Structure formats: structure tokens, C-alpha cells
């Protein structure tokens, strides 16, 4: 049994052989106790008989010692076999896991909008965490059983190459997600900017210039606030093309996106131009209403003087005459 060359053809078989070998080692240990008991019992015999018995006991002990040596050697061989088959099994599990992830990465899209990209990035982050744990397990497996036999070294090389390819695929997928995120983020911000510019254009192109001094002043004040906001957006419009150039080639070359960028630039210039005209029109309206106010004040003053002159009578008393004369 101890000289057997059968070390198992897979991990379960090796475990079974180790279990049987453990029973054999226990049996050998029990026989060791019996030999020690026989050696002690030999002391009770006469000198001649004791010598014969001691020699036989010594022979048994020598045979037992050989058995113990063979048992230890076979255990070493079986444990080495278990390490080998454990290595192969763990490597096969790692390769199967790598294959699953390769299929998942090959089938994964880059998202349809910001929401789906955010969800995919969360999934990718979880996958990176799982990848880190698997990497540590694989390194441990390779460290424990990667050396030695040529077949084992070849297996180590293969799984390392597959792992390297998986990490490259993971990096490429992350890059695609980041590019898609920038693309959809830029598209969303561009859409918001266009919507804002259209709203502002409707405001600055209004033909309401007020109906009096107060309403014109109110509209002019609000218009100045709008103009300040328009000016704040100048840098955002000016950087659109730089942002577009930073996108991935497959994204920045889209005709629709380029058209929207040009539309935003042109619309901004139109807003600025119309806002400038409205500023002037509001100021003109305010000047007109202020002139009307001054004219009205003059008319009221003239009317008061006319009424006074028409009602003026020359008093009969000298003192009263002097007062009227002074007023006149």
C-alpha cells in the first residue's frame, strides 16, 4: 500500500487517498504501541529467551520504522499531488470566471443616456472590486502551486495571459463608459444651453417697452439683469468647440452634435445683438416718457399761471397792490 504510485487523477481522488492513508498511519501508530509493549514484556523472560525475543522485537521495530518512513514519504507525495490538483482546479475556476467576464464585457453597451451610463458605471465599479478580490486569489494560487512541473508552468503562463487580456478589456470598457459619460453630459449641457438661449431670445425680442416712466425703468432694470446673465454665458459658448474636440472621435464627428454647437453659437450672437437693440429701445422709450413727464409738468405750470393771471385783480389798498405786484 505504501509503495503504491497512485497519487490520484483529480482533487477528489487525492482527498480520498489521503483519507485512506490517514487510516493507515493510525494503524501504524497502533502497531508502534504494540511493539513498545512487547519490548517491555521481553524483560520478564530469562536472559537467553530475552535476547531472542529482543532481537525479534528489534527486527519488528526496524520494519515498523521503515513503514513509518514509507508512510511519511507517501504522505508528502499525496500532499504534493493535492497541491497540484488544487492548483489545477483553482486555475480552471479562474479561467471559467475570466471567460464569463469576457463574454459580459463583450456584450455590454456603453449606455443610451446619462442615466444608463451612470448605472453601467456603478456595475463596472462593482466588477472592479470583484476583479481585485479575484486577482488576490489568483496570485495566491500561483504562488502556492505555480512553480515546478513544465505543465504547471505552462498553465500559469496561459492563465496570466488571459488575466492580462481581461484587465485590458476591463480598461477599454471603462474608457468607453467614461467617453460615453462625457458625450451625454456634453449633450445634456448643450441642450440646456440651447433651451436657455431660446427662452432669453424670446425675452430680449419682446416689443413691450412700457407705458410710462416707471414701467420703462422696471423693464430696463430687468433687461440689465438678463444682459448680465447673457454675458456670464459667453465663456460657456466660447468653450463649446474645445469641449467638442475633447470628445472621442466617434462622438465628436456626429453631424447632429456639430450642428447643435453651431446653432448655440449663432443663437448666442443673435441674443447679444437683439439684447443690445432692446437696451437702446428701452432707453429711448424711457427718454420719451421722461420728456412727456416734463412736458406735462410744464403744461400744468402754464395752466396754473394762466388761471392766476386770468383771476388776478388790482387791489384797492397799496399794501395789497405791492403783494400782487411782487407775485407778478
From TrEMBL:
Write down the superkingdom of origin.
Eukaryota
| PANTHER family linked to this entry | SPECTRIN/FILAMIN RELATED CYTOSKELETAL PROTEIN
Query: What are the transmembrane regions?
Result: none
Q: Which GO molecular function, any one, fits this protein according to its record?
A: actin binding
Name of this protein:
SPTN4 protein
Does the keyword field hold Ribosomal protein?
no
Q: Name one Pfam family in it.
A: Spectrin
Keywords attached to this entry: Actin-binding, Repeat
Q: Which SMART domains does this one have?
A: SPEC
UniProt key word Repeat: yes
Amino acid at each position: 500500500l505504501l509503495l503504491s504510485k497512485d497519487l490520484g487523477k483529480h482533487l477528489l481522488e487525492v482527498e480520498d487517498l489521503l483519507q485512506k492513508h490517514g487510516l493507515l498511519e493510525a494503524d501504524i501508530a497502533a502497531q508502534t504501541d504494540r511493539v513498545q509493549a512487547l519490548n517491555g514484556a521481553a524483560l520478564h523472560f530469562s536472559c537467553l529467551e530475552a535476547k531472542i525475543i529482543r532481537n525479534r522485537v528489534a527486527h519488528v521495530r526496524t520494519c515498523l520504522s521503515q513503514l513509518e518512513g514509507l508512510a511519511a514519504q507517501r504522505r508528502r507525495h499525496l500532499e504534493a499531488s493535492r497541491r497540484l490538483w488544487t492548483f489545477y482546479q483553482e486555475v480552471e475556476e479562474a479561467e471559467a470566471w475570466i471567460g464569463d467576464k469576457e463574454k459580459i464585457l463583450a456584450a455590454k453597451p456603453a449606455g443610451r443616456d446619462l442615466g444608463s451610463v451612470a448605472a453601467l458605471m456603478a456595475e463596472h465599479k462593482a466588477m472592479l472590486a470583484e476583479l481585485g478580490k479575484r486577482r488576490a486569489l489568483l496570485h495566491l494560487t500561483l504562488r502556492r502551486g505555480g512553480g515546478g512541473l513544465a505543465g504547471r508552468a505552462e498553465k500559469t503562463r496561459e492563465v496570466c495571459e488571459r488575466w492580462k487580456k481581461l484587465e485590458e478589456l476591463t480598461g477599454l470598457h471603462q474608457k468607453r463608459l467614461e467617453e460615453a459619460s462625457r458625450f451625454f453630459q456634453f449633450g445634456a449641457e448643450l441642450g440646456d444651453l440651447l433651451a436657455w438661449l431660446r427662452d432669453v431670445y424670446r425675452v430680449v425680442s419682446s416689443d413691450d417697452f412700457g407705458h410710462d416712466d416707471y414701467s420703462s425703468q422696471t423693464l430696463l432694470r430687468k433687461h440689465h439683469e438678463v444682459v448680465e446673465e447673457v454675458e456670464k454665458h459667453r465663456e460657456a459658448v466660447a468653450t463649446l468647440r474645445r469641449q467638442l474636440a475633447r470628445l472621442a472621435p466617434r462622438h465628436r464627428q456626429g453631424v447632429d452634435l456639430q450642428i447643435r454647437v453651431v446653432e448655440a453659437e449663432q443663437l448666442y450672437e443673435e441674443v447679444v445683438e437683439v439684447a443690445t437693440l432692446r437696451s437702446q429701445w428701452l432707453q429711448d422709450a424711457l427718454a420719451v416718457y421722461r420728456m412727456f413727464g416734463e412736458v406735462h409738468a410744464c403744461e400744468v405750470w402754464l395752466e396754473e399761471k394762466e388761471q392766476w393771471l386770468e383771476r388776478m385783480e388790482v387791489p384797492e389798498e397799496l399794501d395789497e397792490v405791492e403783494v400782487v405786484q411782487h407775485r407778478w
